[in-house]
Amino acid sequence: MTTIEELISEKKELERLVVKLAAENQQLKDEISEKKANDILFADLIEQWLKNRKMAVKINTYEAYRSQVYVHIVPYFRSKGTMLSEITPGVLEEYYLVKYNAGLSGLTIRKHHSNIKMALRYAVKNGLTDHNAALLAELPCTDRYCGNFISTDQFEIILNKVKNTDLYTPVFLAGTMGFRRSEVLGLRWSDINFETQTMCIQHTVVKCIKDHKITLMFSDVPKTRASRRTLPLPSGVLRYLKELRRRQCDNYTAHRDKYSREYLKYICVDDMGLIVKPDDLSVGFGRIMAEMNFHCRFHDLRHTCASLLVQHGVELKSVSIWLGHSSIAVTSDIYTHLTYREKLKVAETIDEYMKDVNVSP
Question: Among 64-68, 147-151, 172-176, 354-358, whose mean pLDDT is lowest?
Fold first, then answer.
């Protein structure tokens, strides 16, 4: 039988438990209230992150972020009034699906995801949330673009087509040397050493949208550390550059009053000294390819150079250094499928050492 003392003891224990639970409940309410007080709209977080990011990246990279943020991410989440505390992997996946169904590619959506992930990492670092929901969100699949590789005969046809146009020099150099668009447009005469017959890739020209206006950005900061490189000049390229320099000097002398002095140091300019702009190059080249029924982007000229090097037995490491890839893994990922000739050698080797083995089904 329970004694009075035991009943009193149990009552006091229950009272202590009730007080403890009440205190914990109040603490939980206070924490929830504090979180709500500190909670912000997810759209506001994205804008805050973007403002902070501006000082950490190149201006063209920032403008790319800005376009994604204000065209897609912020309008979507602001229209829904989504709070930071409401962001879950499922909420993000719903956004990705909406954008995918609206026609954005898997690759573009992955870029959106990358920005959202960085914004949430910023929120975690600043104590605005305790987790990064983007780390668990599923992403749509993406198909790697496979560039079209043209033959040397096709390249010669293209050169003949663009002859006597502003496109000839950048097309010739990109196809022959494997340059990126930004690299070929950024070439300056000071980057060419005619005595040592070398060319230094250390300056770029890219399109930049700033305050809704298209402008050019001239930069000595390469895409990656490996992008800054010095290359020996093939004799054909050396001869062309010498002739081009002579012709540009003649144009300057003949049109001194009208010739642009702003871009005198650049190689890819028109007859009046105006620099060839990135969009004019890509659009103009694309238009000519369409007329010729060639499926070839300007960047495919770089792929073509690399593929020809690989097919002619140049090692991937050497190709990687020549192209300015950040690592041989990048080169291998893009061009390994081109080494079919090497695979044939392996198959022939297997045939050779298996020829005396009696095999039957």
Answer: 354-358
With beta carbons less than 8 A apart as the criterion, state whether 230 and 201 touch: yes
What lies within 8 Å, CB to CB, of 227 at 6+ separation is: 180, 183, 201, 324
Residues 13-63: tens digit of each pLDDT:
777 877 777 777 767 665 655 555 568 999 999 999 999 998 888 777 888
3-state secondary structure 44-96: HHHHHHHHHHCCCCCHHHHHHHHHHHHHHHHHHHHHHCCEHHHCCHHHHHHHH
At 249-296, the pLDDT tens digits run 999 999 999 999 999 999 999 999 999 999 999 999 999 999 999 989
Pairwise CA distance, residues 204 & 121, whole Å:
31
Give the ranges where the chain is alpha helix by DSSP (H): 4-38, 42-53, 59-68, 74-80, 89-101, 106-125, 152-162, 168-177, 181-185, 235-254, 278-292, 300-311, 316-323, 328-335, 340-354
Q: Which residues, at least 6 apart from 51, have a Cβ–Cβ distance to it below 8 Å?
A: none
Collapsing DSSP to helix, strand or coil, 195 comes out as coil
Q: Model pTM?
A: 0.69
For CA atoms 180, 185, 186, 189, the dihedral sign is: positive
The DSSP secondary-structure symbol of 357 reads S
Helix axes 59-68, 106-125, angle to 10 degrees: 100
CB within 8 A of 191, min separation 6: which ones? 199, 200, 201, 202, 203
Which DSSP helix (H) or strand (E) runs through 230?
strand 229-232
Please give the Cα distance from 277 to 349 (Å, whole number): 51
Please list, in sequence order, all residues whose beta carbon lies within 8 angstroms of the beta carbon of residue 178, skipping any fewer than 6 positions away. 301, 302, 305, 306, 309, 322, 323
**174: amino acid identity, one letter:** A
